[in-house]
Amino acid sequence: MHLSGEWILLIFIVAIAAMMLLLLHLTNLGLILHQTIPDRPHRRNLLASISFFITFLAVRLLVVFIQHHIGPFQYVTMGGRHIHHLVWGILILLGVGYAYLNEAGSLSTPASIFWSRLLSILYGVGAALTLDEFALWLNLANVYWSPEGRESIDAVMLFGSLLAIGTWGAPVFSAWLRKK
Residue of 1, 38, 75, 77 with fewest CB within 10 Å of its CB? Predict the structure, then answer.
């Protein structure tokens, strides 16, 4: 049985989001996270950063499986045309941006905190799907495993570092400046 790429992607996104949300809501990890990183922007950056790197690694692995015919995986095609995963990333980023424009997840209610966390996770997923094919933006050709594809790895590392700095760097720098 072959699963089409869109089903694999949908299952993956739901699984990552559900796993992270369950860990945050049903374990002490959420309480520890809330106590350790007290302000919401840094918690959002942390969730986005984690989902970004998990998605990037999973997508790279999935592409290897597809190219080597391991498992039931296939590329997403519509009318014989390959739909690259950056398209799905862009759609997710558009949805997250629209939700933020409408202030989803901006209140302190439990439902709003849930939406804040979900949107942060989806932002990381969408960014990883999009930046994983950054070289395609520049070359307008499928250069995924070619030397030009290195540009995608560079973009992922740069953006992932930015997310990580937003999570850990800002509190560290703030504490350092307060001590001076």
Answer: 1
